[in-house]
Sequence to fold (93 residues):
Amino acid sequence: MPPEPYEYQGQAAIGAFLSDRTLRRGAPRLVATRANAQPAFGVYFPDPDTGVARPYAMIVLTLQGDRISAITWFGASSVVARFGLPHVLSGST
Fold:
């Protein structure tokens, strides 16, 4: 499964992109995991009516020292199951 074909470089560009997405979709809920020995997160978005959050994507961080050098976004919700993450998140889970 390929990552999304977008590239943002620099803290300001990445921050602006993530802020825009939060305004459009609401704040995601993240569930930590690992992918290829790197930190990764299942991304879930809650339904505003029910509060149940469903998987949306997976992000994998590439670290260089104590800093993030790359973020790879996999935009298929089905990938979270391959990492043993929950099918849904309810309430404050």
